[in-house]
Amino acid sequence: MGFPVTRPRRLRVSEAMRRLVRETELNAGDLIYPVFVTEGTGVVVPVEAMPGVNRFSVDTLLSEVERVVAVGVPGIIIFGVPAEKDEAGSGAWAADGVVQRAVRAVKERFPDLLVMTDVCLCAYTSHGHCGVVQQGRIANDATLEILARTAVSHARAGADIVAPSDMMDGRVKAIRAALDAAGYHEVAIMAYSAKYASAFYGPFREAADSRPQFGDRRSYQMDPANGAEALLEVALDLEEGADIVMVKPALAYLDVIYRVKKRFQRPVAAYNVSGEYAMVKAAAAHGWVDEQAVVLEMLTAMKRAGADMILTYFAKDVATWLKEK
């Protein structure tokens, strides 16, 4: 039945009416805040390409996490920026590594906060790649044991969720087996299942000091032109034991988030990545966009597409804005 009997504007006439019929609601509980931890004491180093984002030493990280908890963000994901790198990325699994110390400190101070850790080698290897390099190529199978060892070291430190971001084939299976063998049956895996070889990662590589020293990552990260391939990657990760699957980046891949959620009906994470963050910050600094309005619209779109949780550098701000609203 059409106009004039049907008038969709009736349900838009006031904020109360719009709220009553709203299909998608963004909440602080949907957010995960990424943090970068580095060596030293009293360190707070701004990331030039990401205004408002810093590298923290473990002691100053606790102050930052206190602010995260205060605004109601339920979880963080920790990225390590070690002082030293080597060919094998041995700092990634060191018991006294920067991530391991950060996890212990955060869980001791904030035991109810959900602590996730990035499991990868790129920030720890001298060559900057996410796996073992053999004869100039990334050796998939040789990397799996190292990733598994890293994940166990994070679980031992107290991580609730480990998040392999390397895109090596079979790494979820290797990590799940290693965690279970070590008795960490309750530590969950959030797999970067559909991680694209994206141009949106530039500012992150400055933050994590993880630029590859040769070549690029297109032999293991996904081609941005492919959508169906993401469904295969997700299916394999779920079969291997992933508890949560991720699509990264988020904004340019809303169609992939939608397809993954519709096909699998499992928890889906979306990563609102550094380039997406930096573009909004730059435009807002020039007065070209309303930062708050744009950010809330972007994140709502990610949730509307099917994301159950969103990793975003805007998490503290968004939680504050939502509380004010």
UniProtKB/TrEMBL annotation:
5-aminolevulinate 2 binds at S274, Y313. Its cofactor is Zn(2+). Keywords: Heme biosynthesis, Lyase, Magnesium, Metal-binding, Porphyrin biosynthesis, Zinc. It comes from the Bacteria. Pathway: Porphyrin-containing compound metabolism; protoporphyrin-IX biosynthesis; coproporphyrinogen-III from 5-aminolevulinate: step 1/4. GO terms for biological process: protoporphyrinogen IX biosynthetic process. CDD domains: ALAD_PBGS. GO terms for cellular component: cytosol. One of its GO terms (molecular function) is porphobilinogen synthase activity. Catalyzes an early step in the biosynthesis of tetrapyrroles. Binds two molecules of 5-aminolevulinate per subunit, each at a distinct site, and catalyzes their condensation to form porphobilinogen. This is Delta-aminolevulinic acid dehydratase. It comes from Thermodesulfitimonas autotrophica.
